[in-house]
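As the next step, I selected for study a record pairing a protein sequence with its backbone structure tokens, which the following lines show:
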Amino acid sequence: MPDLEHIYAGSSRLRHPRSEGDLMQAAVDAFFLVVHGDVSDVMSLPPGYVLRSANTLSMMKISLEKLTALWTVVKNGRHPVDISVRTLELYRPLFKYVNAREMARLNLSDPKIVLYLGTHPDLNRHQVGVIARKLVALRPGWHRPALLTLMNNLLCGLPVVLLHQIRDDALLQLAPSVFYHIYACDPLQVRFFYHLMTKPQVLGKAYSWGFEQVFKLGLLLTEARGAHLTTVKPHAIAAITPQVMAKMKPINLRYLTEQQKAKLQPNVRNILRKKLRSYTFIRRGISTANTPQPLLFIMLLFHTSVKVLTKCL
């Protein structure tokens, strides 16, 4: 690694490795350039190095200017529309820092790229909104089931007036994975999709749901009220995944019956137990943060005993 005392920003360039030892040294020098160099130093990095190191680079504190430069390096003189899905997959850990307009310039006629954008967990509401608007403009048949299934999280970027154009039969044909990727949706959007999917013409009321219907709702179940959850058939409630259970509200989970809880997967049941325990303590005014589990049990026992004694007196 170069000596910091004998280097200044903009003066470093990466040497091409000639052996395996040189390759390791080149990797160390490249990290040095990203951390201590300026934008022109970052621009000197080879595209292949940036792609191979994207995961490690994503864990570092890098300025926005340098992150923009890394994307420029990866493009390597190409327009965004010419970037392949393989390149995007390698760049996935850093992709969330790409400008939204750049994302919208990717090849949105390629189903693999649309799926990549729709399932990326780190894109924000603005980014998916810009991409979704461009996609709708390019693809008049965006509301068909095949494309909706590819869009996933991009649905969060569509205005309600457009979402009303989706037909009930198209909603029924959506792949079960769609509502597990709606990371950018705000609570109002999730509620809107929940009401769309639980219309009588689509999935209907909670008491009529089977395993497939519960699984298809995915994260939309976070909007299911407790009075509705308690009517779901026990065998259907088993479709709740750990991801969904972690997002559900304890105030609604209290309504689950013992028969329903018994059908949950063991890891899902553990998440439920912890959420209900925390909710119980919060209602009693007890903070669960950084409190050992045995102590929490003693505190709960004490509060319960005091409550019983108070009633007796």
Notes: The CA atoms of residues 34 and 42 lie 6 Å apart. The chain has three domains: 1-79, 99-185, 193-313.
